[in-house]
Design goal:
The complex is a heterodimer.
Chain A lengths: L13 E12 L2 E12 L3 E5 L6 H8 L7 E6 L2 E2 L4 H7 L1 E3 L12 H8 L8 H6 L2 H21 L14 H13 L5 E5 L7 H16 L3 E5 L3 H7 L2 E6 L2 E6 L1 H6 L1 H8 L9 H22 L1
Parallel strand pairs in A: 3-8, 3-9, 6-7, 7-8
Antiparallel strand pairs in A: 1-2, 1-4, 4-5, 9-10
Chain B lengths: L15 H18 L23 H19 L14 H26 L7 H17 L16 H8 L13 H24 L3 H20 L2 H11 L1 H14 L8 H25 L8 H13 L14 H23 L6 H19 L22 E2 L2 E2 L4 E3 L2 E3 L1 H24 L2 H11 L1 H6 L4 H27 L17 H11 L5 H16 L7 H15 L8 H8 L8 H5 L11
Antiparallel strand pairs in B: 1-2, 3-4
The chains are: A alpha/beta, B mainly alpha.
The complex binds adenosine-5'-triphosphate and magnesium ion.
The site of adenosine-5'-triphosphate has 12 residues of chain A, from strand 2 and helix 1.
């Protein structure tokens, strides 16, 4: 749809392969039989109205919830439903409600993200051999690199809780990147951001993709999603309604209906839908104009 | 002083030059009065009847007066004294003056109450009191060190509280490194002297006076910016500062002529060491352990049972190193056994289980007496006659002469306990500033996010819990030999004699969670106050509760704030952050677009 999106070659390896993921809470089925794949080098979007089950799906992928049914494979191996093992395997995430370590410094937050990629245990910390010092120095260096990448290097000593909102979201991304993931899950990365900040985040995500990290992103900002993603899936009431290129999903009337409500059977609302579709199409053409 | 449009006026409307002059005059008057007789009879302790030199509480008053005078003179900008107040200039004067009035007023009150009426006061005491009152009143006329910014019309109380605040000191002048090292040595020398003085106070009145004056004086030093300067220097020469601190602590027994106060010091060290171990569990990993003292008990009982005492059910005598290792190992096993099932759960289960474990331990050792259970621990009578340690013929139970100083028996245990404390300090600081320490703090901050960052929450928490248990066990093995008897009642949840679980937790919270010096200071205070003020015994727990409530209200981070807590509670030094974003951290669910 625009020059920034790249078409993935058919041969690209599958990074994430979720099949038949179902999550029930008592009588409520929050996620129902969802299949989703993410290939290397892809940015995939996940949209859907409030309460559709997007965050729940993320939690199933990352082991915070044990899915009632279904399997999640990362690069071919089935993931155990333990969050730390999922991160160890190579999936990192951010949270919809920012969950930084509020009373740690910015740098320490990123260093915590390095946890799975370093090994020094208690003994090594107590004995402080040369190996420990080297590993600590390497972690610091990598963490500072990531802070430079997101532009927070000057605030390394600040407490995370004192950062402005947008910076907190960015820091969460840096913290996730610190675990050297192969797949990054972003849950509403631009929520609460102003348009400029959103655009910066967009660039950031493209840069992350260019580092060879596949991205799966939940977002309510359609303009953002359609600019960014190679593929978009729409969840409605726990079920995957459509999946396809941004153009296809945008044009799908079921998606529009899901967001705006289904008109009464038959015709009475049909022209309304058409109207809205026209408006949507109009707004995206404008968006394209802006971003190019 | 900065001149702003809404400069805060002093608490009392006295012209600044007059206020300063009167402050100095008042302090000098009180200072002079300490050389006069304050009462006529030697019935009041401390020998306050002599004209010519100060004694007892007069010495403390003299210190307060001298400090006030020095800060006041520094406020005049007198060359050679200006270094005293790199931070606030007038708030330290006010604080020192309040301390002065506090000690002076307490002395006058104590004399009047104990001897029955103000007639027992000699003119010297009246002169001192008047001088102290003048000092305080005049000091309230001195300008504020920083203006009140949040309101243009502050209430008198707000004004008063603000008058005690001070800005942080600016960048210091470069000093040659020998001078900085000399400052470290001098500071720890003074610290040793002050602590020794406190431990050596012979009667309750003196101890109360000591608490008043040191409390205010230390706060004044903080406000003057001297503590910030000192901590900058000690950070720069970290290893030298640590060595100096322990050297100062090691000198303590040499200052003692009898064993009486060395025993207090040994007990403080045991208490402080265990509190510091608990601080790993509570302060770093955020695990609320309400039965921590039981691990001390496990170590102590283990050491007692293998010490070779005739009361032991096992007729074995292990060398000390072996009993330390065994005590540590048994505590570790108990730690894992208690921790493994509970640490998998979230929430307050751990607090309940540890509380239960603490009580179960005490009751179990009370019942393993051959009547209600197998004969292992002698039940409520405990294990007595634990022999003194003996290292290669060096008998810990005897006094020795070292460097010409006669050292009592407890000095040996003091040194041993100091070694144990160094071990725990080392473990705390090294573990705290490493990958595992960061993982502990992350778990404490947000367990979900921490596990999503790849931290195995269970494993990391179990390490913290077991490490804490092990350190307490090590301290316990020494404690068994110091006390020479272990009984179940030493390891209760709450009781009048520290260490018990409640006091350990209080020492950590009072001193400052997550810091090293905090629990040490907290433990020293919590041990000394009941030990020195025995007349308080009935009200001790009440006062203790009140003190904790006040602390939580006015200084939630504890006496010593760690770097994080300081930022957390007082938002200092982060002025580049707009206010509205501070509130935004909890409301992260706003949706954009769509
Ligand atoms: N732990 C839980 N227990 C019970 N119900 C849950 C739980 N977590 C989520 N749900 C329910 O599952 C449904 C899907 O919620 P989810 O948070 O996944 O939606 P979402 O698509 O992320 O919505 P939003 O756009 O508002 O973030 C909701 O009805 C929610 O109430
Ligand atoms: Mg959600």
């Amino acid at each position: 749809m625009n020059t920034m999106t790249t078409t993935t070659p058919e041969t690209a390896t599958t990074v994430l392969d979720a099949s038949g993921v179902t999550m029930r809470f008592g009588g409520l089925t929050a996620v129902r039989n969802v299949d989703l794949t993410v290939k290397a080098g892809e940015i995939v979007g996940l949209i859907g109205p409030n309460g559709a089950g997007k965050t729940t799906f993320f939690n199933c992928l990352t082991g915070l919830y044990v899915p009632t049914e279904g399997k999640v494979r990362y690069k071919g191996t089935v993931l155990p439903p333990k969050p730390h093992l999922v991160t160890q395997a190579g999936i990192a995430r951010t949270f919809q409600n920012i969950r930084l370590f509020a009373n740690m410094t910015v740098l320490e937050n990123v260093l915590v993200g390095r946890h799975t990629r370093t090994k020094e245990g208690l003994w090594s910390a107590l004995l402080r051999g040369p190996g420990f010092k080297k590993a600590e120095a390497a972690s610091h260096e990598r963490a500072m690199e990531l802070l430079e990448f997101i532009g927070l290097q000057d605030k390394a000593d600040h407490l995370a809780r004192n950062l402005p909102y947008g910076d907190q979201r960015k820091l969460e991304i840096a913290r996730a990147l610190a675990s050297d993931p192969g797949l990054l899950l972003l849950d509403e990365p631009t929520a609460g951001m102003n348009p400029q900040e959103t655009r910066v985040t967009e660039e950031l995500i493209f840069a992350i993709r260019d580092m060879g990290i596949a991205v799966l992103v939940i977002e309510h900002d359609m303009r953002f999603i359609f600019n960014l993603c190679d593929r978009v899936a729409c969840l409605v009431q726990g079920e995957k309604l459509v999946e396809g290129s941004p153009g296809e999903v945008q044009a799908d009337e079921r998606v529009v209906a899901a967001y705006l409500g289904t008109p009464f059977e038959g015709d009475p609302g049909a022209d309304e839908v058409a109207e809205v579709e026209a408006a949507e199409a109009h707004s995206t053409t404008r968006t394209e104009g802006e971003t190019q | 002083m900065t001149t702003k449009t809404h400069q805060t006026t002093p608490v009392l409307p006295i012209p600044a030059p007059a206020a300063r002059a009167a402050t100095a005059a008042g302090a000098a008057l009180t200072l002079g009065s300490t050389f006069l007789a304050w009462t006529w009879t030697a019935k009041f302790p401390g020998d306050l009847t002599v004209t010519g030199y100060p004694g007892g509480l007069q010495v403390l008053t003299l210190v307060g007066a001298a400090l006030t005078l020095l800060f006041t003179l520094s406020g005049y900008g007198i060359k050679g004294l200006r270094w005293l107040t790199p931070g606030g200039t007038n708030s330290p004067v006010r604080l020192a003056a309040l301390g002065l009035l506090g000690t002076m007023g307490f002395t006058v009150g104590a004399i009047s109450v104990e001897l029955g009426g103000v007639v027992n006061l000699e003119p010297g005491a009246w002169i001192g009191l008047v001088g102290a009152i003048i000092t305080v009143v005049a000091s309230l006329g001195l300008p504020h060190d920083q203006d009140i910014t949040d309101t243009a019309t502050p209430s008198p109380l707000e004004k008063f509280l603000n008058s005690l605040r001070a800005p942080a000191p600016g960048r210091p002048k470069e000093l040659p490194s020998w001078a900085e090292i000399l400052i470290i040595v001098a500071a720890f020398g003074i610290g040793l002297f002050v602590v020794t003085y406190g431990i050596d106070t012979a009667y309750p009145e003196l101890f109360v006076g000591y608490l008043i004056i040191t409390g205010f004086a230390v706060t004044a030093l903080f406000k003057a910016g001297l503590m910030a300067r000192l901590s900058a220097i000690t950070t720069k020469y970290r290893s030298i500062a640590v060595a100096a601190a322990f050297a100062a602590a090691a000198v303590f027994p040499f200052t003692q002529s009898t064993d009486q106060y060395t025993l207090i010091a040994v007990n403080i060290l045991i208490f402080a060491t265990v509190a510091l171990g608990l601080n790993i569990v509570v302060g770093l990993a955020g695990l609320l352990d309400l039965g921590y003292v039981a691990f001390l008990g496990v170590g102590a009982y283990t050491a007692a049972l293998v010490s070779g005492t005739s009361a032991s059910a096992f007729g074995v005598q292990f060398p000390f190193w072996a009993s330390v290792l065994l005590g540590a190992a048994v505590s570790l096993i108990f730690g894992v056994v208690i921790g493994a099932p509970t640490l998998r759960l979230r929430g307050d289960y751990l607090a309940i289980v540890t509380l239960g474990f603490g009580e179960i331990f005490r009751i179990a050792v009370g019942n393993l007496d051959g009547v209600s259970g197998p004969r292992v621990t002698n039940g409520p009578n405990g294990v007595p006659n634990i022999p003194d340690l003996n290292f290669f013929g060096y008998d810990f139970g005897e006094s020795h002469t070292i460097l010409g100083f006669e050292l009592g028996a407890y000095a040996n245990y003091y040194m041993l306990m100091l070694l144990a404390m160094i071990l725990v300090v080392l473990v705390f600081s090294r573990a705290g500033s490493s990958r595992i320490g960061r993982a502990w703090v992350a778990i404490r901050e947000d367990e979900t996010a921490a596990t999503a960052m790849g931290i195995n929450g269970f494993r990391v928490k179990l390490i913290a819990f077991a490490l804490g248990a092990t350190l307490a066990g090590i301290a316990g093995t020494v404690q068994a030999h110091v006390q020479s008897t272990v009984v179940p009642e030493m390891y209760v949840f709450a009781g009048p004699v520290p260490p018990n679980s409640a006091f350990l937790l209080a020492a950590v919270i009072l001193g400052g969670m997550g810091t090293i010096s905090g629990p040490l200071i907290g433990a020293a205070l919590l041990y000394m106050i009941p030990a020195k003020l025995q007349f308080l015994s009935d009200y001790q727990l009440l006062g203790f509760g009140l003190a904790l409530i006040l602390l939580m209200r006015f200084r939630p981070e504890g006496l010593i704030a760690n770097r994080r807590a300081k930022l957390e509670y007082h938002e200092t030094g982060q002025l580049d952050v707009p206010d509205e974003t501070l509130a935004g951290t909890t409301s992260g669910t706003t949706k954009a677009g769509a």
